[in-house]
Amino acid sequence: MLDLAAGGGRHARLAQGRGYRVTAVDLDISAASAIPGIEAIAHDLESGAPWPFTDASFEGIIVTNYLWRPLMPSLPGLLAPGGALLYETFARGHERFGKPSNPAFLLRPGELLECVRGRLRVVAYEELEIAEPRPAKVQRIAAVAE
Ligand SMILES: C[S@@+](CC[C@H](N)C(=O)[O-])C[C@H]1O[C@@H](n2cnc3c(N)ncnc32)[C@H](O)[C@@H]1O
């Protein structure tokens, strides 16, 4: 399981607790590297550098609250057959709730669907306002490699 822009590692920890072998990647791995049993890799995802792992084929990829568009086309190719992409981040319309408000960090309508179209099977997709843990406009997708 690959947790991209893993931050404090809340999803990495959850996945590991469910029995997955987890790789967490972030600029700052001070939190993730403190989680026993998780491989934490410090890497600038926006540098254009190659992925910091070789021959990677993941059972799942988790990306939450992070958007760097140049990465998105390569995500389906990192999944093993049957692997799932779970992606949730802020979408246009979130500006009224606060940051992020820069369009560079807000998904366009349907953008997560576009990202996987023709490459992954969409299991679930939502574009909605949520109230918890704080008001936000988000898109979320679960899509599977076949
Ligand atoms: C809002 S936090 C989300 C953390 C985690 N995914 C979560 O939802 O709890 C965004 C994360 O992106 C990471 N990040 C920002 N720019 C990055 C970059 N260029 N390369 C790698 N990670 C980056 C930050 O260090 C931070 O941990």
Number of separate domains: 1
The name CATH uses for the topology is Rossmann fold
Residues in helix, %: under 10%
Mean pLDDT: 97
> CATH first level: which class?
Alpha Beta
Strand arrangement, largest sheet? 3-2-1-4-5-7-6
CATH superfamily: Vaccinia Virus protein VP39
Element layout with pairings:
Layout: E1 2-4, H1 10-17, E2 23-26, E3 39-42, E4 58-64, E5 79-90, H2 111-116, E6 121-130, E7 136-144
Parallel strand pairs: 1-2, 1-4, 2-3, 4-5
Antiparallel strand pairs: 5-7, 6-7
The structure holds S-adenosylmethionine.
S-adenosylmethionine is lined by residues 5-8, 10, 26-28, 44-46, 64-66.
Question: Could you please describe the fold and organization of this structure?
Answer:
- 10% of the residues lie in helices and 34% in strands.
- The chain is mainly beta and 146 residues long.
- The protein has one domain (2-144): 3-Layer(aba) Sandwich (Rossmann fold), CATH 3.40.50.
- The chain has a seven-stranded mixed β-sheet.
- Helix 1 links the parallel strand 1 (2-4) and strand 2.
- It is globular, with a radius of gyration of 15 Å.
- The protein binds S-adenosylmethionine (SAM).
- S-adenosylmethionine (SAM) is lined by residues 5-8, 10, 26-28, 44-46, 64-66.
Summarize this structure briefly.
By secondary structure, the chain is mainly beta. The chain is 10% helix and 34% strand. It has one domain (2-144): Rossmann fold (3-Layer(aba) Sandwich), CATH 3.40.50.150.
